[in-house]
Amino acid sequence: MISRKAAIARQFNRSAAGLYDMHAHVQRTMADMLAEFLMQQANIDDSNKLGMLEIGCGTGILTEILVNRWPHSSITALDIAPAMLLAAEQRVLGTANPVGSNDRPSSDIRFLLADVEKWAAHTPASSFDLIVSSACFQWLSQPQQTLNYLYRLLRPGGILAFATFGPRTFHELHTAFEEVYRAKGMVAQRHGLTFQSANQWKDSLTTTGFSNIQYKCKLLTEEYASPRDFLLSVKALGASTSEAVISHSLGSRRLFTSLYKEYENRFSTPEGVAATYDIVFIQASTPE
């Protein structure tokens, strides 16, 4: 049986070939807002050669921002999916540009294929000044343990900054699923990830030893032509993981037919249907 992490990597490998960037409207907004949040909250001199780690670089949306904002830094961009790393390298290093192009970043950057939850446990302490991540921490299997590892990797006064999804994310979808199960007299199952709140992350960071914890939350609403289009977009992003077991008596086709109808009845808009993204931005630091 394929492991959870292997399944996640396989999903993102499939979405890396153009599909991810076509559907990553929210992820681009998250990366932009995280960079802005970081610059507002942290006094980081862009003339210094900082050691940076980006966790879950994906196709390089945030990586490109980091390279442009801190051009003298040394950046390690890590991801679990080989195809994502290739896409990020093409975006940032310009290998997709015409032959002869000299447009290359001045940053020292390397792309690393690894599962951060394993890699961070064996990486030398005090390796980085800044650790960043966007739209990745919701995938961590052991977030508290991973935060402990990341704390160890930061130098004194180092900063951890990340953007992830909060508990209101896709509340329309979960509400519709719950109503479908209720109407059929069945126990509701969770389809998709369960997301931590900002306060839960803050508590975990405090437990680890981080200080100067700052956070903000923002609700974004996207519109899709139909519930099916919404779910196809989520799948194109590689984010369609679900541990729900669909009853044989119900069947996948009947379940989703009922879901689409319930979703449209409850959450229709003039443009189709709405889907909420609850974005959590958090920054914390280690003692000087």
UniProtKB/TrEMBL annotation:
It is an enzyme of class 2 (transferase). Residues 53-162 form the Methyltransferase type domain. SUPFAM superfamilies: S-adenosyl-L-methionine-dependent methyltransferases. GO terms for biological process: biotin biosynthetic process; methylation. Keywords: Biotin biosynthesis, Methyltransferase, S-adenosyl-L-methionine, Transferase. One of its GO terms (molecular function) is S-adenosylmethionine-dependent methyltransferase activity. Its EC number is 2.1.1.197. Pathway: Cofactor biosynthesis; biotin biosynthesis. InterPro entries: BioC (IPR011814), Methyltransf_11 (IPR013216), SAM-dependent_MTases_sf (IPR029063). It catalyses: malonyl-[ACP] + S-adenosyl-L-methionine = malonyl-[ACP] methyl ester + S-adenosyl-L-homocysteine. It comes from the Bacteria. HAMAP family: BioC. Converts the free carboxyl group of a malonyl-thioester to its methyl ester by transfer of a methyl group from S-adenosyl-L-methionine (SAM). It allows to synthesize pimeloyl-ACP via the fatty acid synthetic pathway. Belongs to the methyltransferase superfamily. PANTHER family: TRANS-ACONITATE 2-METHYLTRANSFERASE (PTHR43861:SF1), TRANS-ACONITATE 2-METHYLTRANSFERASE-RELATED (PTHR43861). This is Malonyl-[acyl-carrier protein] O-methyltransferase. The gene is bioC.
